[in-house]
Amino acid sequence: MVTIYDIAEKCGVSVSTVSYVLSGQGEKRRISADTQALVQKTAAELGYVPRKRRKSAPAVPQPTAAPPVVAVYWPRRDFEMCMPPLTQGLNNALSKATVPVNISIRPYDQGHLGDQLQGQAPPCDAMLFVAGQKEDLTWLESHPPVVPSVLFNRSLPGYASVSVDHMEAARLAAEHAARCGGTDITIVMNTVDYYGLTSRSEHMVEILRAHDWEPSGHTLYCANRVDDGYELGCELVRADRLTHVILCAYDMVGLGILGALYEAGIRVGEEVQVLAVSTGPQRLFARSCPPMTVVDLRTREIMEHCLSLAIDYAAGHLTDPRSLTVQPEIVFRQSAPQRAPEQADI
Fold it and tell me: pTM of the predicted model, to two decimals?
């Protein structure tokens, strides 16, 4: 006997979606016309018979429609700094949700998202993708989503998205670095091709060059980890290569450099200015030694907006892809104060 579970699996939608369509609530639940047509066609092809027409069927309770499912894909590794604001954003969105919803957390290996999606992933009503690399975005672009999908800090045709203004973040960081250090600036970029991180870094270089900064000899690369930033800071001290400003494309690297300079007795905020672009929890940088100036990418707010959108899609309240841009903000602290002091000899 064909059940709504069979139809849901065949269509690649949730059981609740099938239940709503077959009970005549598709329009009320704002389920797209294409999805309703697919469910009705599949039910007919499989020979589904509603319970009220099964005269010989035993009287058993109708299954209760399950809450819609949102699948959240985020990286397995090198994402520790983002986790507190991400989970806060998830909690905020769930607290504000007007419908029950199930969240399915699905970790993935960056660069291999397509491998996981081509496998036998459980069905869901909407998907949310966090921090895809270039290879992941290429795969998503060539494989249109089968359910409504939202991109976190990324943008692709056919996908909803919530993203920070990457170019504005780069401008805030680069122009403050130029105010603090003129052309005596070292920029520390990432070693991995993350879409947002790479585009911001490239734009920072463009802005600094417009201020007559010369990248040769002052552009370094470092993995996105505190320990790697610390080792880089130690090497800069040993090699006597400190400039008046160190601009980090990622906050974990900045924290590591702060630690190395502190151990070397360098007066950060006076002899050397350190600032970074940040996705992490702001209370951490407010308590670093010294407190670190950052361009806050507002990760918590972006995640909150992303999940709220995904919930609306999963519940059928929205159909067309929507995009939202969040503005970053610079938070001035002691490591690179708003009014830069006179340059000191290093």
Answer: 0.76
